Amino acid sequence: GAGVSQSPSNKVTEKGKDVELRCDPISGHTALYWYRQSLGQGLEFLIYFQGNSAPDKSGLPSDRFSAERTGGSVSTLTIQRTQQEDSAVYLCASSPGLDTQYFGPGTRLTVL
Amino acid sequence: DQQVKQNSPSLSVQEGRISILNCDYTNSMFDYFLWYKKYPAEGPTFLISISSIKDKNEDGRFTVFLNKSAKHLSLHIVPSQPGDSAVYFCAAQSNFGNEKLTFGTGTRLTIIP
Question: What is the pLDDT of residues A62-79, one digit of tens each?
Answer without folding.
Answer: 999 999 998 879 999 999
